[in-house]
Amino acid sequence: MKGNYKFLLLALLIAFASCSFTNKTFDNPDKDKLLIQLITYLLDQGHFDPQELNDEFSASVFDDYLIQLDPLKRYFYASDIEEFQAYKNEIDDQLQSYDLTFFNLTHQRLLERIEESKKLYTEILEKPFDYSKDETFVADYEALDYVKNKREMKERWRQQLKFSSIANYDAALEERNSDLSSNNLPESVFNEDIATEKLEKKSEKEIESEARLETKQSLDDLYDFIKDRRREDWFAVYMNAIVNEFDPHTAYYAPEDKDRFDVAISGNFEGIGARLQKRRNAIVVTELISGGPAWRANELEVGDHILKVKQEDEEEPVNVVGMRLDDAIKFIKGPKGTVVTLTLKKVDGTTQDINITRDVVEIEETYAKSSTVEKDGKTFGVINLPKFYINFEDYNKRNAASDIKKEVIRLKEQGMEGLVLDLRNNGGGSLQTVVDIVGLFIEDGPVVQVKTTGEPKEVLKDEDKSIVWDGPLVILVNELSASASEILAAAMQDYKRGIVIGSKQTYGKGTVQIVFDLNRMVRNNSNGDMGALRFTTQKFYRINGGSTQLEGVKSDVVVPDRYSYIDIGEKDQENPLPWDKIDAVDYEHWDKYFDYEATIEKSKARMAANDQLKLIDENAQWVKRMRDREVFSLNYDDYKKEMEVNEEEARRFEKLSEYKTDLTFKSLPYELQLMEKDSILKEKRRRWHVNLSKDVYIEEALNVLQDLKMTYSIKGKMAGVKE
């Protein structure tokens, strides 16, 4: 396997950390104080750029924490903030003495204000809104002052609730008027006059009332979620306000958050394979994961309510009605091979017990997928990689590098003559898999440089001379391609191995994090699960010496997209680490193309003349204007006029979804066999292929593959592959 260093980097960091911590005892009986002790020590000893805990640090935490607690400024009063101000420069001192005074004060006050606000919004929504009144709503919450009294608080809530309700009101009026004009009547109603009269009886007064009810139900759902939050959940918010001051990617994971991170990065978990949501007091099934145990058993349905859960070694089930969603999930998930019994209220209203044998559930959306496409008599391959997934406990299990290798080999068996690797929206993942994937496309050589504070740089290399794909290669990126995606794109660009097409620059995350289990640092722990800390330990650099931090990877061919004018990159985040540069390493350009630069110029010319891309750019500018808009009319006539202007402008961009190519994408033989038994997979691939056939970026990537000329013809299907 390429990259035999496996977990060397991660293992060395954790081993070093573990050794460093053995001389210090962490045994505070108060869990919150122990958590502060662990996290502050870890960040001071292990973070790439440790922060000095001083008054400036304290003030930044103070401001960010209050924004997180009350972003819309509809809970706290100016008097609350004035009281909190006494601690603005004291948080650093409290952290060093494990003092919880500031947190306890803000937490208790927030709970009080939330209870008050529930009564407030309930009272406001009992009365009709007057949409004939001339008034505006300002959505620039950062510019708002905190209210001084209950009268101002009620007015703030009233405006926010009216703004939420006017959209519901408008939608309901549109639906009624549309039904009346199109005679869109229920099939059970045979008398058209009676039916029309029935629809007309739904007055604007009734519609206004229903709009307020819809707003209230939405808020009730939010407050049910808030009610389920425990003190430790709010404390995690406080801890994250602290650790986020170090950099945007340093974060504290409470136990449930750590579990979610593990699932996200590995793409699998052990359980029944159902996505759940809490609605009111019910645990509701919202999706069955294709191929999972619940999907295979074919007894659980979307919309079923889970009432009770019983383990195979228990006599009595546990009632989960009203339980926190995270707690209910703990009962439902479990080890592979065990049986769980669910008591359900079915969609049809009946009650039923079902047994499901838990298994490893793979989240298919996480994994690489591929397709073939023919263009002008040539067969090309497309691989979409959503993230660089890995099982941190066992690299030999399914991971992004091994899957990409399989897909490339399968595509070669279908006669592929050029490959598009789609990294758009790929936020990154495992550093190890990147090195291995780069190694699939080059003979050998450096892939990325990694630097730890105060230590010599390390160069991670591909040392396996075999090449899995030696033909034309295009990498697709956008502003949301980050971290590991940027390493791969940068390496392919520096080697001139592939042409990068996409946004002006990628996300700009040039840092490396580890996830450290805090329980490892506590002896004789009686405090329960302490969670984990994800923190930045290193920065990575291209082989040409430049960092991707902040600047990202600049595409060889820049094309506009919907994110072009939106601030979503690393440079737009709070507290990012700076850009810098180190010495380059020795590497040789790929010498198999003889028209690399000419191909880039031809692609730029095509893109500049492409009407679809011009329209996409205009749409991106319009999206930016809509996002930046902060003042809205609460007079319905004015609101409607504004909406009509927006809708008219939006209609200009309907052509974007109408764009089609003459390309037909096909699944590989192994997936076609799977689809015979899996209709959900078949439908997912059908939708993906439809989207690809409308994708102007994919179309141009294929044009580039056609243009790229090599100094020799592509070798046989399996050339250069060493199994």
Secondary-structure map:
Blueprint: H1 8-21, H2 31-46, H3 55-69, H4 78-84, H5 91-96, H6 101-124, E1 136-138, H7 150-182, H8 192-200, H9 204-228, H10 231-243, E2 251-253, H11 255-266, E3 268-271, E4 274-279, E5 282-288, H12 293-297, E6 305-311, E7 318-319, H13 325-332, E8 339-345, E9 351-357, E10 359-362, E11 369-375, E12 378-384, H14 400-413, E13 419-422, H15 431-438, E14 445-451, E15 458-462, E16 473-476, H16 484-494, E17 499-502, E18 511-517, E19 532-541, E20 557-558, H17 596-608, H18 611-628, E21 631-633, H19 636-651, H20 655-658, E22 665-666, H21 669-675, H22 679-693, H23 696-707
Parallel strand pairs: 12-13, 13-16, 16-17, 17-20
Antiparallel strand pairs: 1-21, 2-19, 3-10, 4-5, 5-6, 6-7, 6-8, 8-9, 11-12, 11-22, 14-15, 14-19, 18-19
Helix pairs in contact: 2-10, 3-10, 6-7, 7-9, 14-15, 15-16, 17-23
Give an overview in words.
Helices cover 42% and strands 15% of the residues. The longest helix has 33 residues, at 150-182. A 7-stranded mixed β-sheet has the order 20-17-16-13-12-11-22, sandwiched between helices. Strands 4, 5, 6, 7, 8 and 9 form a 6-stranded antiparallel β-sheet that branches. Strands 2, 14, 15, 18 and 19 form a 5-stranded antiparallel β-sheet that branches. α7 (150-182) crosses α9 (204-228) and α14 packs parallel to α15 (431-438). It has 723 residues and is of the alpha+beta class. It is globular, with a radius of gyration of 28 Å. The model is unreliable at 1-22, 185-199 and 714-723 (pLDDT under 50).
Summed up:
The chain is an alpha+beta fold and 723 residues long.
